[in-house]
Amino acid sequence: MLTLVHLKKYYATQKAVDDISLKIEKGKIFGLLGPNGAGKSSLLRMVTGITLPDSGKILYDGQEYNQDIHNQWIGYMPEERGLYKKMKIGEQAMYLARLKGLNKIEAMQKINYWFKRLDMESWWNKKVEDLSKGMSQKLQFVTTVLHNPKVLILDEPFSGLDPVNSEIIKQEIFELSKQGVSIIFSTHRMEQVEEICEEIALINQGKIVLEGNVLEIKNRFKKNLYRLAIQEELQGFESNIVQKNMDEYILQFANDQEPNSLLQHCINQHYHIKTFEEILPSLNEIFIQQVENTQASRQFLN
Q1: How high is the pLDDT of residue 173?
Q2: What does the pLDDT look like over 40-58, one tens digit per residue?
Q3: Which CATH architecture has domain 223-279?
Q4: What gap in Å lies between CA 229 and CA 273, rounded to an integer?
Q5: Within 13 Å and on the Cβ side, how many CA atoms surround 154?
Q6: Dihedral through CA 226, CA 232, CA 237, CA 241, nearest 10?
């Protein structure tokens, strides 16, 4: 659905986006990650048509960017609020829907649908300036999806939301994905990425340093660590134990060792097994490691 081909964007001597290529399939939720100043915002501005690339192409289902694609295909929810504080909420939703090409009847149907779905029906005559941060975030989400975009870009969509409304928005994101919407999800919250995204790209200093399926990436960086919880004292695997806390053991195996031998040993010894699981690294751990490695290598080359 969305293909980025050798995108570059420079500001003076800074390479904000330095030869990035990505492909985001229809209906996928794609996580765009990176530290502050990595180039994420510059990349998103090009995808949404706010700025143009210095070189490279952006293709939407094979078509290059144009104004019709911008109006009909793209929904962009920026981290900064893009709402008019003095306008009434219903009027604002109608205004933004009309800007996206919906006629008045279509716009009213869509607004009523989303206001009812997100429990916002009583908000119509309130002003944006009277809303809490979480409430304005719900409104911004609604105005982003009113026109049924094919490509949805969400920059920190859960900012300011309480757990209940975060869960509501999360389920709506999943539903839009099922309907075939391609979603770019940008956030600093790694636990949200692990829960929501199928694939990710980590950008640092304008370049992609890591990309792929979330589970495959976590398996790529695993360290053969396992968690075992038993009622008895573990005997026979002392050299593998890296940590012990009460009845829980963390064990590490060499590449030529078979972890299932531990489980078989526990069964043979008639231990009461509470937990036996592999410990995969979190995206946060991988993120920090890759960013530090990239910065170290750049300093070495310089």
Answers
A1: 94
A2: 888 988 888 888 889 999 8
A3: 2-Layer Sandwich (3.30)
A4: 6
A5: 35
A6: 50
